Amino acid sequence: MASASIRIEKLCKDFHAHGSGAAWRALENVSLKVESGEFVTILGPSGCGKSTLLNALSGLDSDFSGAVAIEHNGVRANKARVAYLFQEPRLLPWRTVRSNVEFALDAAGFARSEWGDRADKWINLVGLKGFADFYPLQLSGGMQQRAAIARAFSIEPEVLLMDEPFSALDELTARRMRQELLSLWEADRRTVLFVTHNSLEAVYLSDRILIMKRGPGSHVCEEIVLGHLARPRIYEDPAQFETQKNVLQRLMHHVA
Fold it and tell me: Could you give the strand order of the β-sheet that contains 159-163, starting from the edge strand earlier in sequence?
C-alpha cells in the first residue's frame, strides 16, 4: 500500500471548562501539508497543542473547526490506514507481544492466515526475536515501545502519527529507538507526522520541522527545511549538530 498525504487547513480547537462556560483556544488557524512519503516533525513546548492536532487528524477528536484530511493524489481518502504511536506503548497487558500485533492486524482487516508471518516479521525487525510470547509487563519500557512500533508498522499504514513516543525513555535507549525507526521508515517511506519538544530528535529524524508557538491560540510559526542533511543520519555529523543548535535557538525565540 502506498503512502498518503496529509492536509490541515485553518484548524481551530477550543476546550471548555466544566460549569463555568470559560473557553481556552488551544489551536488557532493551523494549516500544514505533509507530502506522501515525507517525514515531518512538529516541534514545540509542552502545552502548545501538538497532541491536540494529532488527535484531530487521527479521528480521536471531531470537535473542532477547519479541515483535516488524508489524501491520495490530492483527493480525500474515505478509508486510509493510519497508525498512531503514543507517548506510552498502550499495549494490552493481558496479551503477549505477538497477540498485541495480531490484534492490530485483525482490526486492520488482514486475513487470519497472514497474522503469524506478519507478526513474526515485525517483531524480529524491531529486535524482539525471542520475546514474542512475553507479556508487556515482563518487558522493559524500551522493549514495550519496540512492540508498539512493530504493531504500528505491521498494518502497513499509509500515515504514521507519532506523539513523543520516546520521551519516557533514557537518552541512550531513545537514540537506539530513533535509529531503528529511521531504518524501518527508509525501507518504504511511509508518511510520518511526528510530535516532539526535543530539538535534537526533530533534526535527526525529519525532512522538515514545523515549530509551534504556545497559545492561547497556538499555531505553526516557522518552517525549517532540512534538505541539506544527508541520509542516513548520524548523530556525530557536525552539520547536524550545528542545525540542531540553530533549531533550538529558533524554538527558544518563539517560546520567549
Answer: 82-85, 159-163, 191-196, 39-43, 208-213, 219-225
